Predict the structure.
Amino acid sequence: MQDWSKDYMFGYQFLNGCNPVMIKKCKEIPDKFPVTPEMVKGFLKKGVTLQEELTAGKIYIVDYDILEGVLTANDPECLNAPLCLLYKNRLDQIVPIAIQLNQTPGEKSPIFLPSDNKYDWMLAKMWVKCADFTVHQLETHLLKTHLISEVFEMAMYRQLPAVHPVYKLLKPHVRFTIAINAEARKSLISKDGIITQISSLTDKGKNEVIRKAMENLSYESLCFPETIEARGMEDAPKYYYRDDGMKIWEAIHNFVSAVVNIYYDSDEKVQGDEEIQEFVKDCHHGMKESPKFPKSLRTREELVKYLTVVIFTASAQHAAVNFGQFDWYGCIPNSPSIMRKPPPEQKGKVDMKYIMESLPDRGCSRTTLGAVWALSCFQTDERYLGMYPEMGFTEEPVKEAIKTFREELDEVTKEIKSRNEELKLAYCYLSPDKIPNSVAI
C-alpha cells in the first residue's frame, strides 16, 4: 500500500503480481511505439544508449494489442490498448520508462515519461494496469486456467475409463472444475455478470477478447519452460514466478514420468493405447481443432509432457494467477478495473481531480473488492498439490512415486520459505503448500 504508486512496484507486478505472463524482453522498439533515445536517455544508466541497453537485454515491453478495437459499453476510448517500455536498472528493478496509451502513435497519442507531470505519469500507469486487469481476468485467468482445465476434464471423463492409470492420475486435478466454471458462467462472465459490472466491456467485447486470446493460444504457451524462454525472461532479476514455477514444473514432470514409466515400457505402448489417443484427440477438438495443439502422442516423453501440462495448468498456474487477486486488486488505484474518463490526448492536462473522476466509483469498487476477496480465498477442505486422500492407485511403485513427489514438494516449500525470509515482500503464490490440486475457485 505504501509503495503502490512508485515505479519499482509498478514494474514488480509484471514479474510477481496477478498477471506475470505479459512482460517480455524487447529486442527492437516497434514502429507503433516510437520511443526515441532522447526520450529515455535520462532514465538509463549514465553514458549508455537505448540501443546498447536493448542489445544488452535490459529493456522489456508489455503490449495489450489484444484489446484494440474491442467493444465497450461506454465511451469507446475508455478501454485502451496501451504499450509500456520497462528497464532493468542498476538496482535490478524493472521500472517503466515510457507509456503509450493506444496502438496508434500520433499527436493525440503522446508517449508519457517518468519526467512528466506526476499526475500525467500516475494516470498513464493506471491505464496500463486497467488493461492488465482486463487481460488477466479474461485471458490469463479465465481462458488459460479455468476453461482449458475444463477441456481436459471433459475429455478425461469421455475417453478414459476409471480404471485407466491416466484417469487415476488426473482425477484429483479436475476436482470441482466443471462446477466452479458453471458458477462463473452464471455470475461472473454472464451478460450482466460481475465482469460486465466492473469493467467497460460489453458482453460481445468479453467474447471478442477471449476469441482473440484463443486464436493466439498454443500448446507451447501452456508449457512453462517454453513460454518463459519464448518471452526471453530466463535471466530477468527477481522473477520469483519463474523461479518457483520451474521447480514446480520439474517436480510434476518427475512424478508423471515415474508413473508413466510404470505402465508404459515402450513408446509403442503409448501409440497403441487407443484410449489415450482418443483423449488427446478429444482435447484437440476442445481447442477448436487448432493446429497448435497435438492430435496424437507418439512417445512416452510426449505423454509425460502432455500430462505435466494438464496438472501444472490446473494447479500451479491457476494458483499463481488467482490467489493474489485481493493482494493486488484490493487497492483500487493500483489496478482499476475500469476508467470512467477518456485518456488524455495531451500532456499537462491532468490533475488529481481528473484522476479521481477517472477511477471506478464507490459502487464499482465495492463489487470489485467483494469479487477478488472471494476469488482469493481457499476452501475449508482444500487439497493441495500432492495430497491424494482418495487414492486411486493400489500398486506399490505408484505409491512410492507419490511419496517421492511429496518429498520433493516439501523441499521446494522449504526453499521458498527460506528465500522469502530474506525478502521485504514475500512471494508465496507458488509455494506447494498453497497450491490447490485443481481449479476449484
